[in-house]
Amino acid sequence: MKKVSMYTLSTCPWCFKTKKFFSERDIPFTFVDYDTAEEDTQKRIIREVDAAGATGFPVVNIGGKIIVGYKPQQYLSALGI
Predict the structure, then answer these.
(1) What is the model's pLDDT at position 52?
(2) Which of 52, 72, 74, 76 could form a disulfide with 66 if both were Cys (CB 3.0 to 4.6 A apart)?
(3) In which domain, by residue range, is 18 found?
(4) How far apart are the first and last CA of the chain?
(5) Are 45 and 58 in contact (CB under 8 A)?
């Protein structure tokens, strides 16, 4: 299975839905809540998000493919499901 990681916000309803989507399907993922991260981590996240052209949260990385926002069909497609 492809590696799934994401940047989220601790108060974002779409971020909650995204985490729930992967959890309900038993798809392992890692995440970092941008707003609760250390300053150095926040700076790194901003560089990565800017480089990917992302303009909001969640930012989901599935095997190197970046998907911005809550987009279940795109997640499944990127996972090959």
Answers:
(1) 86
(2) 52
(3) 6-79
(4) 10
(5) no
